[in-house]
Specification:
By secondary structure, this protein is α/β, with parallel strands linked by helices. The chain has helices spanning 23-38, 55-63, 78-83, 86-92, 172-182, 193-200, 217-220, 251-262; strands spanning 4-6, 14-20, 44-49, 67-71, 122-126, 130-132, 146-149, 161-168, 205-206, 213-214, 232-234.
Length: 277
């Protein structure tokens, strides 16, 4: 596979795919892989990983049965790379809604696009800071390109897409078209892969927010929270394995993530209380 090196062969025509770019996201992916297995998926679980991830961090993912696929960075220009380097990107697109983790490397986000080169008929991408709380194998039958809106603060968020969960149909032709569109003179994708994918697929199909429930909804829009309906929980911005300023406000969600990371004492969702209880 062009730019990809897989450790083993595919077992299924369908795969859940995540991206790991450092040891922190490898820790997140461990909880994600466990959540997918616990939800009873029949599909492959693929971990794309860049050269910045050490072997010790990848070993638990392999032990959990994930298919590890090394990915090269995209062949983007020096100008593109400079524009999307962490310091430059955050200076040109200041972010005030939450705290980006120190290990966040915006340019690496574009490696998601190599998903379109994988040897599968259908894929569902999941960010490494998500948890799958109910079986979502049905998404493999959804068309390309489906994603949930970026809802975490108000109804105004519904017009933007969040690329933490999306459906895709691997195709070399699609990947080539993406590269051609991605790195053009003066290109600047404000929210990196999210802005690009939203532009590349302007008629993206909207999934219900419950397929990508962002953690800030817990305290910003509590009336929207429903444990029985949530399929995927997404720890956007601050991560559940970090100490951070919002940790106590998000404690029930963090405790849930840690149970999945350990693989023990995972509570029944029906027993969890909502933000107003």
């Amino acid at each position: 596979m062009n730019g990809l090196t897989a450790e083993k062969e595919a077992r299924s025509p369908r795969a859940f795919v995540t991206l790991v770019t450092n040891a922190d996201f490898a820790r997140g992916a461990k909880a994600l892989v466990r959540s997918l297995t616990r939800a009873g998926t029949k599909a492959d679980i693929v971990v794309l990983h860049t050269g910045g991830v050490d072997a010790i961090s990848l070993a638990p993912l392999r032990d959990l049965g994930a298919r590890l696929v090394a990915t090269e960075l995209l062949p983007t220009s020096e100008a593109f790379n400079a524009a999307h380097a962490r310091d430059r990107l955050h200076a040109n697109a200041p972010f005030t809604k939450g705290t980006k983790p120190a290990f966040h490397t915006p340019l690496d986000n574009f490696c998601k696009l190599r998903l379109w080169l994988l040897d599968y008929e259908a894929c569902v991408f999941l960010d490494a800071d998500t948890l799958v709380l109910q079986n979502i194998d049905a998404l493999f039958d959804y068309p390309e390109f489906c994603a949930a809106p970026n809802v975490y603060e108000s109804l105004a968020d519904f017009h933007r897409m969040n690329s933490g969960v999306f459906t895709a149909r691997p195709s070399g032709a699609t990947f080539d078209a993406m590269l051609k569109r991605l790195d053009t003179p003066n290109a600047f994708w404000r929210r990196t892969d999210q802005t690009f994918l939203e532009t590349f697929f302007p008629d993206w199909h909207g999934l219900p927010v419950f397929y990508n429930m962002l953690q800030y909804v817990w305290f910003a829009m509590p009336e929207l929270w429903d444990w029985k309906a949530i399929k995927v929980l997404h720890f956007q911005y601050e991560k559940p394995w970090e100490d951070h300023a919002k940790a106590e406000r998000l404690r029930p969600l963090i405790d849930l993530w840690r149970a999945y990371e350990r693989g023990i004492d995972v509570p029944d969702l029906a027993s969890l209380k909502g933000p107003k209880e």
